[in-house]
Amino acid sequence: MSLGTIFSFIAAAIIVLGSIFTATDAPGAFVDIPSIIIVVGGTFVALFISYETKTAINALRLMGTTFMKHPDSDVSLKDEIGRIVRWAYIVQKNGLQGLENEITDELRQKDAFIAYGTDLVVTGYTGQEINQILNQMLESEIERNKIPLDALKKMGGDAPAFGMLGTLIGLIIMLGKMGGDPAAIGPSMAVALVTTFYGIILARLIFIPLSTKIAARYDVSLFKNTMIKEGLVLLAERKSPRYIQDKINSFVDVKDQFLIDRDMNTAKTTEN
Hints:
Blueprint: H1 3-23, H2 33-50, H3 53-65, H4 77-100, H5 105-110, H6 112-123, H7 127-176, H8 185-236, H9 241-249, H10 260-271
Helix pairs in contact: 2-7, 2-8, 3-7, 4-6, 4-8, 4-9, 4-10, 6-8, 7-8
């Protein structure tokens, strides 16, 4: 579970509800079923109108993944560099057959990208060929992820629009009754505005923050995989372990760099 996401939603609920309960003696004014139907229903209907059903469902599932811990959230880039450097020594000593023994079932389940890339190295592709294949893989992944992510962002834009629509409906109804009891104008106006409140809450506390978090997670994974791709290309080119170390250390901050003389034994222990 992603405790950060869960605690953030709890904090958001406390802030909003706390503000309401401390500001008014009639918090029930913020509950209006027709307004909820207009905003929530309209936003979801617009999603399914705009995208194919499969894409819309994937976008909704994507929101659920933000409550789960991301696989790359705790990944140490230093350890990943150490893994590549250790593999360079294995290739140097035992050839590609030795590297093939490193592609375990556990690795395939934990990190399919590095397992796939290592398979390419073992197969005997050149560094340039592996670079082209893995670049295409990363670019395709970006395009696949972009569509459901855009759908979530669209929901963030649609929710306030449907909130405004509900407000307009309420205002039309209110203006139609202005010839009656003037005392009813205030409560009617409150009901009209509550739909805008729902739209802003959905957009600014749910759809937009979740889509931003998902995009940030994609960026983390892309950066890690780009670094790993560079390391695998160098393995295929049979570069020396120290050259590989220095080349892929350029991806990380100086304090997070892997150094053979200092960290090699630690890297072996971490993987085992």
